[in-house]
Specification:
The chain is α/β, with parallel strands linked by helices. Helices cover 44% and strands 13% of the residues. It is globular, with a radius of gyration of 23 Å. It starts with a strand and ends with a helix. The structure holds cobalamin. Cobalamin binds next to strand 1, helix 1, strand 3, strand 4 and helix 6.
C-alpha cells in the first residue's frame, strides 16, 4: 500500500492525483504485484482534523478577512492564537486516528508492505508516527519511504524514522519492483539501486544512484478506483511525466543532484499518453511535471496535438533561456499557462548568487511574447536574494512593471542541503546558525497554517545579515508593492488552469473564495468546486 499525506491542503492543486504514486503502481502491477494507493490529500481531511469549535471560529474569521475584506480585531487575533493551539492538538489526535485506520486496512487488505510518500511538514510527522506505530504492531510488515523529503534530506531521515526498512531516493519505478522482491524474500537490500537502509550494526548504507535512461519505457500511471482508492474525490487533472532532469546548475536547486541530466519522452509518446489518459479517465486538463521542460520539445508536442486535433488544456514550467519559440502555436494547442523561474532581474545576482543562465533583455522579450499570445504568464522571484541591494530591488521591480506578467510569485531564499547555497553559505552572504543541525531543523520544520510567514518559528539562517523575521517581512513588503501596481501575486500555472474551469467570473473572486474555503477548512465548498471543475472540464 502506498500512502501520501502532505498535511492540511493549502491550495486547489493539492487535489490533483499524484503522478508519482500512480506510476509506481503501474510499475508494480506490470510486475504482477498487488497495490493500493491511499492519498489523503482531499477535502474531507479538513473534517477529519477540525473540531466544530475550530471550524466555526475559522469560518467567521475568514469570512470577515477574506470575503468582507475587513481587518481582524485584537480580540480576533487573540482568539486565533487559542484556536491555533487547539488545531495543533487536533492534528495530534488525527495522527492517532490515521494509525488506527491504516492498521485496519493492513488487516483487511493483508498488506505486507507500506510505502509512504514523504512530504515536508505535518504530512512528514503523520507518516513517521504511523510508520513507527505500524512497525511496532506488525514487526513483519515492511515499511518504506520515498518522495521529495527523501530526495532532499536522504539518510538524515533515519534520525527520526529509525523503523524504515528502506528509503528510496531519486527515481522509484525500478526500485519499487526490487523492493517488492525484497518483501517476498527474493532480493537483498544491498542489491537494490537508489535506496538508503540501515544495517543491523546501525550503519547507514546508500546504494548507487540509477537513473532511468529511456523514459519511454516508463509505465502509465494507474488511476482506477480499485487501485487509487479515492480517485473519485480528486480533480480530473493529471500530471504528465514528460521529462526529468535539468541541464542547468542553479546554486539554490537540488535538481542537478536529484534528477540528473535531462531526459525527455519522445513527443509522440507524450501525445499517445495524453490520448490514453483521455480515453481511460475522460481527462482534458494536464500539467507537465518536468523541472525544466524544453521549449522546443513543447513545440513538437504542441504541433502533434494540433495535427491530431486533440482537445486538451495544459500548463508547464519553462526556463527563460530556452523559450525563443512561437507561443501562438503553444496557445493553439491548448497551452494555458507557463511558469518561468526568473528569480531576479539583476545580472550580478543571477550570475554570482544563483548561476542562473538568463539574459534579462531576451527574458523580457520572451515574457512579453508569451503574454501577448494569450498564455497566462507566471514569473517566480527570489526576494531577498543573495547580494540584494536597493538598486537590485529596483531593477527587478522595474522589470516586472514593464513586462507586467499575469502573476508574480515571490519567495525568500530557501537553503536546501546538497545545494551550493548550503555547501558554501558565506560565498552567498548567508549565515547558517549551525550547519551540523541545520538539515535536521529544516527537515522537521513545521509551518503555522493559520499565520503568515512572519509569525512562523524563525528559520535558522540570515540572508545578507538579516534574520528570519526581517527577511520574511522584506518578502511580504515586495509582494505588497507588486499588488499596489495591480500585479497578482498568488496564482501559479496549474491554479490558473483550474480557475478557467471553476465557474468564477473573475480571478479575484476565485482567489478570495478559495482562500476562504481553505482557511476555514470548508470541505463541502471544496468538494462542490472539485465536482464543478470535473464536470466543466469534461471529466467523468
Ligand atoms: C508537479 C509538481 C506538483 C504538482 C503535482 C504533484 C502530484 N500530486 O503529482 C502539484 C502542483 C499538484 C504539486 C503540489 C504540491 N507540491 Co509539488 N512539485 C511538483 C514538481 C514540479 C514535480 C513532481 C513530479 O511530478 N515529479 C514526477 C513524479 C513521477 O515523481 P515523484 O512524484 O517525485 O515520484 C517519484 C519519486 O519521488 C519516487 N517516490 C515518490 N514517492 C515514493 C514512495 C515510495 C514508497 C517509493 C519507494 C518511491 C517514491 O518514485 C516516484 C517515481 O519515480 C516537484 C519539483 C520537481 N521538479 O521535482 C514539486 C515538489 C515535489 N512539490 C513540492 C511541494 C511542497 C508541493 C505541495 C506540498 C505544495 C503546497 N501545497 O504547499 C503540494 C502537495 C501536493 C499534494 N498534496 O499531493 C516540493 C516538495 C518539498 C517537500 N520536501 O515536501 C517540490 C520538491 C517543489 C519544491 N522544491 O518545493 N506539486
Amino acid at each position: 500500500m502506498l500512502v501520501s499525506t502532505a498535511g492540511l491542503p493549502k491550495i486547489l492543486s493539492d487535489f490533483i492525483p499524484d503522478v508519482g504514486l500512480g506510476v509506481l503502481a503501474g510499475a508494480l502491477i506490470n510486475n504482477n504485484h498487488n497495490v493500493k494507493i491511499l492519498d489523503l490529500n482531499q477535502p474531507s481531511l479538513f473534517s477529519d482534523v477540525f473540531t466544530d469549535e475550530i471550524s466555526s471560529f475559522l469560518e467567521r474569521f475568514s469570512h470577515k478577512v477574506f470575503v468582507e475584506g475587513k481587518r481582524p480585531s485584537v480580540f480576533d487575533l487573540l482568539k486565533l492564537k487559542v484556536i491555533d493551539k487547539k488545531l495543533e492538538k487536533s492534528k495530534e489526535e488525527f495522527s492517532e486516528k490515521l494509525q488506527g485506520y491504516l492498521d485496519s486496512r493492513i488487516q483487511k487488505d493483508k498488506i505486507d508492505c507500506i510505502g509512504f510518500k514523504l512530504w515536508a511538514g505535518d504530512g512528514f510527522r503523520w507518516s513517521l508516527e504511523a510508520g513507527r506505530y505500524l512497525k511496532k504492531r506488525y514487526p513483519q510488515l515492511k515499511v518504506i519511504g520515498g518522495g521529495p523529503q527523501v530526495d532532499i534530506f536522504g539518510e538524515e531521515i533515519y534520525k527520526v524514522g529509525e523503523f524504515f526498512d528502506a528509503l528510496c531516493y531519486s527515481e522509484g519505478e525500478e526500485t519499487i519492483v526490487h523492493l517488492a522482491d525484497f518483501v517476498a524474500g527474493k532480493k537483498r537490500l544491498d542489491e537494490i539501486p537508489n535506496i538508503i537502509f540501515r544495517k543491523e550494526d546501525g550503519s547507514v548504507i546508500k546504494t548507487p544512484r540509477k537513473f532511468i535512461e529511456d523514459l519511454n519505457q516508463l509505465p502509465l500511471a494507474v488511476y482506477t478506483p480499485d487501485v487509487y482508492l479515492n480517485i473519485n474525490e480528486k480533480l480530473k487533472m493529471l500530471v504528465l511525466d514528460e521529462s526529468r532532469g535539468c541541464p542547468n546548475s542553479c546554486y539554490f536547486c537540488i535538481h542537478p543532484v536529484k534528477s540528473g541530466k535531462r531526459r525527455t519522452k519522445s513527443p509522440q509518446k507524450v501525445v499517445d499518453e495524453i490520448k490514453e489518459y483521455k480515453k481511460r479517465y475522460g481527462v482534458k486538463l494536464f500539467k507537465y511535471a518536468g523541472s525544466s521542460t524544453p521549449g522546443s520539445f513543447m513545440m513538437d508536442v504542441a504541433q502533434k496535438i494540433i495535427d491530431e486535433k486533440i482537445d486538451v488544456r495544459y500548463t508547464s514550467f519553462g526556463h527563460l533561456g530556452e523559450f525563443d519559440i512561437d507561443f501562438d502555436i503553444l496557445k493553439k494547442s491548448g497551452c494555458e499557462s507557463i511558469f518561468f523561474g526568473l528569480e531576479s532581474a539583476d545580472e550580478k545576482i543571477l550570475k554570482e548568487g544563483m548561476n542562473k543562465n538568463i539574459d534579462t533583455v531576451k527574458a523580457k522579450g520572451i515574457l512579453k511574447k508569451c503574454k501577448d499570445a494569450g498564455i497566462f504568464t507566471v514569473v517566480s522571484l527570489i526576494y531577498p536574494a543573495p547580494f540584494e541591494t536597493e538598486e537590485s530591488r529596483k531593477k527587478t521591480m522595474d522589470f516586472i512593471k514593464e513586462v507586467r506578467p499575469d502573476s508574480v510569485l515571490v519567495q525568500f531564499a530557501g537553503i536546501y542541503p546538497e545545494t551550493l547555497w548550503f555547501k558554501f553559505p558565506e560565498r552567498f552572504n548567508f549565515t547558517i546558525e549551525d550547519k551540523e543541525t541545520y538539515p535536521f531543523k529544516i527537515m522537521t520544520y513545521q509551518i503555522k497554517n493559520l499565520f503568515p510567514p512572519t509569525y512562523w518559528e524563525p528559520l535558522p539562517y540570515r540572508i545578507n545579515g538579516m534574520p528570519f523575521k526581517k527577511f520574511a517581512r522584506e518578502t511580504e513588503k515586495f509582494q505588497k508593492d507588486l499588488q499596489k501596481e495591480g500585479i497578482e501575486t498568488s496564482i501559479s500555472d496549474e491554479a490558473y488552469l483550474l480557475y478557467r474551469f471553476s465557474g468564477f467570473s473573475t480571478l479575484r473572486d476565485f482567489l478570495s473564495a478559495n482562500r476562504y474555503y481553505f482557511y476555514s477548512g470548508n470541505r463541502e465548498k471544496l468538494e462542490e468546486e472539485i465536482r464543478y471543475i470535473n464536470r466543466k472540464s469534461g471529466g467523468i
